[in-house]
Amino acid sequence: MLQLEHILGFIPEYLPYYQLALMHRSKLEEVEQNNERLEFLGDAVLGAIVAEYLFKRYPNQPEGYLTELRSRIVRRESLNNVAMRMGLQKLVQYNNSDRGLSRSHIFGNALEALIGAVYLDKGFIKTRKFIIQQIIKPYIDIEHIESTDTNYKNQLLSWAQKKGHTLVFESIEEKTEGTRRVFTVGIVLNGEVIITGNGFNKKDAGQVAAQKAIEKLNIT
Amino acid sequence: MLQLEHILGFIPEYLPYYQLALMHRSKLEEVEQNNERLEFLGDAVLGAIVAEYLFKRYPNQPEGYLTELRSRIVRRESLNNVAMRMGLQKLVQYNNSDRGLSRSHIFGNALEALIGAVYLDKGFIKTRKFIIQQIIKPYIDIEHIESTDTNYKNQLLSWAQKKGHTLVFESIEEKTEGTRRVFTVGIVLNGEVIITGNGFNKKDAGQVAAQKAIEKLNIT
Q1: Minimal CB count within 10 Å: which of A65, B1, B130, B217?
Q2: How far, in Å, CA of B212 to CA of B199, rounded?
Q3: Least confident interval from A122-136, B26-40, B111-125, B144-158
């Protein structure tokens, strides 16, 4: 309870929301009793609040910049990492003996569910405060996320060189989506397309593809 | 102005937000003066409010059901259609002579930007009311959207039969994403995979693929 209050930064009112948020499916399969519905809600609320936060923080950046930045802040790996640093692994109920579970995802998902619980318990304004004060400010280094913008491609290329792989970026498709051109760039590793990325220009598409490749290949 | 008030259901306070929301990029390229940033914000706010609406309306449906239903409600085609029926095409400023523009997308995007404007002007609670009272209730038939759930596959198969095409659903991949199995089903039209869909089971993946194929092939 004290740990939960410390994580939240306030005293929760209706406890069952929080108990549900911390209940992973591996513990109780029944949908009414696990946190997946709350995760759906929390994910959406988080997306809106981060969108507003970036919209106001970067008044001169175009939509594409905000979209990209947001997707990096709320993406699975980022949330897993934040959840672990918040100490959620001490509170989440899950089946320890299920060896097929990818643990860190459980905590990122539980963080989203916790946001859903806060929203139901305290409403939008308090949830915004919780997200900004307890999550973004202490755990998310937006300047750092911004500055790594153009480094995925280099990171991937230097990895390939070190390992003796041939790696090229290849333009695969250009199409019109709505009013915009969308570009698809593929990463060709030793002659085989291993992953693709999309963007509103080739540079962005290449970055997206490189970022996905780095995750897929577990390059650190 | 009267038309805008009619669409909003209230009297707007800070007009520049709304003027910006109705300004398409084809009219003014500069990012500070077109509606794309507001569209980013409005899209996120709409996603959160629809998520909460479905979460409360369907207390016993699992997360996957809510996710699917929401994605159909907020998807591009659906919003374009709603925007046209609301009469947004009479208010949006865009370049009439630009023949490369896909018109209907302009209005769906402007609807999202308008939601962003309402949010900045009036806050979250009023925006929720606007979305539920002025958009969802009059223009979105959720029961109908739900009932078309299982019909994409049949619709696609009967189209293929009528046209004399061979069409089969083929399981392409099964992988683990986080704690879950994700299935990819492809649609094979005359021997060629034309599109794929993902889902947490093969049935859902097939439906997603069928829905995408119907859009791609312009089947009505």
Answers
A1: B1
A2: 13
A3: B144-158
**Residue of B43, B45, B55 with shortest CB distance to A40:** B55
Q: Is A112 in the active site?
A: yes
Cα–Cα distance measured from residue B60 to residue B52, given in angstroms and rounded to the nearest whole number? 14
Annotation says B13 is catalytic: no
Count Cβ–Cβ pairs < 8 Å, chain A vs chain B. 97
Domains of chain A with CATH codes: 2-147 (1.10.1520.10), 151-216 (3.30.160.20)
- Distance, CA of A92 to chain centre: 19
Q: Which residues contact B203 (CB under 8 A, 6 or more apart)?
A: none
State yes or no: ipTM above 0.95.
Answer: no
- The pLDDT score that the predictor gives to residue A99 is 62
Tell me the pTM.
0.74
Question: H helices then E strands: how many in chain A?
Answer: 11, 3
From B39, B68, B112, B121, active-site residue: B112
What one-letter code names the amino acid at A193?
Answer: V
Residue of A nearest to B99 (CA): A179
